[in-house]
Amino acid sequence: MTPSVPPVWVDTTGLYAALPSGGSIGDVMVGGDPVVVRGDEVVKGCPELAKSPCTGIQAIGNRDMEARGSAEEACVEFTLFTFATA
């Protein structure tokens, strides 16, 4: 059973903090800088990225990372969405 937990809203600074940092994952994953997008750009891009309606979208945070020294180029993409609260 999933506990009932109220939603948590984070601002742009919170999105940056919520995305993994190099130190939080250790030296296994390396990658680009976190990116946070808001405003008209996020409203236009969200439905395609999320494959879902994005009513109330406020911002999207993203960071791509790769396994260090991986010959197979193993990649992980972290994407977080924030929405206006009701």
Plain-language structure description:
The chain is globular, with a radius of gyration of 15 Å. A hairpin with a 7-residue loop joins strand 3 (57-67) and strand 4. Helix content is 26%, strand content 31%. The relative contact order is 0.25. With 86 residues, it is an alpha+beta fold. It contains three helices and four strands, in the order H-H-E-E-H-E-E. The two termini are 25 Å apart.
Which descriptors apply to this entry?
86 residues, 3 helices, globular, alpha+beta
Please give the structural blueprint.
Elements: H1 12-18, H2 22-25, E1 29-31, E2 35-38, H3 40-50, E3 57-67, E4 75-83
Antiparallel strand pairs: 1-3, 2-3, 3-4
Short description:
With 86 residues, the protein is α+β, with helices and mostly antiparallel strands. The protein has three helices and four strands; from the N terminus they run ααββαββ. The protein has helices spanning 12-18, 22-25, 40-50; strands at 29-31, 35-38, 57-67, 75-83.
Proportion of helical residues:
25-40%
Radius of gyration: 15 Å
Number of helices: 3
The overall average pLDDT, rounded, is: 81
Unreliable stretches covering 5 or more consecutive residues: none
Q: Sheet bearing the most strands, described?
A: 4 strands, antiparallel
What would you call the structural class? alpha+beta
Order of helices and strands: HHEEHEE
Given the C-alpha coordinates, what overall shape results? globular
Q: In whole angstroms, how far apart are the ends?
A: 25 Å
**Share of β-strand residues:** 25-35%
Total beta strand runs: 4
